[in-house]
Amino acid sequence: METLAYLHLYQAFEDNHSPELASDIARFWRPSNWHQTSNLALMRLVSRAICLAFASACTTALLLVGVADTAFSIPLRQGDTGAEVSRLQQRLRSLGYFRENTTGYYGQNTETAVRTFQQDASLSVDGIYGENTDLALRSRLGEAWAAAKVLKVGDRGLAVRKLQERLVIAGYPNVAIDDNYGSQTQEAVRLFQEGLGLRNQNGIADLETQAALGEKLYVVVVPARNQAILNRVLGIFPTAFLAPHRLGTYVHAGSYPRRDVAEIRVEELRRQGIPDARVAYL
User: Fold this and answer.
1) 223: three-class secondary structure by DSSP
2) Which end of the chain has fewer CB within 10 Å, C or N?
3) Which position has the higher pLDDT, 73 or 233?
4) How far is it, in rounded angstroms, from Cα 123 to Cα 118?
């Protein structure tokens, strides 16, 4: 920017093709006792410098606005749509406030999630995602993300063990609690992601997956007296699988954070001749 300024100043001395501008400024400076040529050069220099300073200020302001928009455009409110609403929904979901699939539409469910978060954060509750809500949400996310990291095949340690324990509690099969994120853990995570309709269904336990897994889940279960039961459930819900339990093996037909969704699946199973289907809260 300094180089551009010098170029403009140099041009101010050299340019002899703006008589109207020079004349206007000369009338303003007429009381001066300076030599006419010196006045003209000085006046044109000052005018160019003022214009350049104004243009520089405007450019800086526009750049700052661009950075702010890239970070997050606020406020967001009911009726808004777009990628930034999706980002907000994902952030709320990672903290357990938004339990739907991300849609990019700021509807009633998103507003309710924002209101609940505002209440928990002791903010003014209006359902509008404004500056104070944004700051509070970023702070909470910083705390959550500091305590968690993405887990994938090859990882080891206590975080993996806790993930495996939760998968077992949720009824996902063939998960050895051995602190090692192997292929069995990867497949169980993939099944969980698929069952909840999460964005990523690749078997990598990202922060959204871990937040969802940390919630209490409503699991659709069917006592598995024989292979024929599993085959019948698979014919209705292809993602079902056998899961062991201390009370006996059962068919796991899906996990959901909302009971009403799980009940819909139960009703469908019963309607198709599987009366033992029910919802378990794990």
Assistant:
1) strand
2) N
3) 233
4) 5
The domain that holds 121 is classified in CATH as 1.10.101.10
Is 125 inside any structural domain?
yes
Cα distances from 118 to residues 76, 112, 123, 132, in angstroms, run 14, 10, 5, 9
Total domains in the chain come to 4
Burial class (CB in 10 A: 0-12, 13-18, 19+), 104: middle
One domain for residues 95 and 62: no
Domain that holds residue 24: 2-71
162 within some domain = yes
* C-alpha to C-alpha distance for 128 and 93, rounded to whole angstroms: 17
Alpha helices (H) along 172-247: 183-196, 207-213, 227-236
C-alpha torsion sign, points 84, 85, 88, 90: negative
pTM, whole model, 2 decimals?
0.43
Q: Is the peptide bond before 275 cis (omega within 30 degrees of 0)?
A: no
Residue 13 is assigned to a structural domain of this protein: yes
Residue 153 lies in a domain: no
Q: Tell me the one-letter amino acid at 167.
A: L
Residue 127: DSSP 8-state: S
| Collapsed DSSP state (helix, strand, coil) of residue 280 | strand
List the one residue out of 75, 142, 68, 72 whose CA is nearest residue 111.
75
Which amino acid is it at 68?
A
Q: Amino acid letter at 112? A: T
Q: Answer yes or no: do 110 and 171 share one domain.
A: no
pLDDT tens digit sequence for 132-168: 898 788 777 765 555 568 899 999 988 888 888 888 7
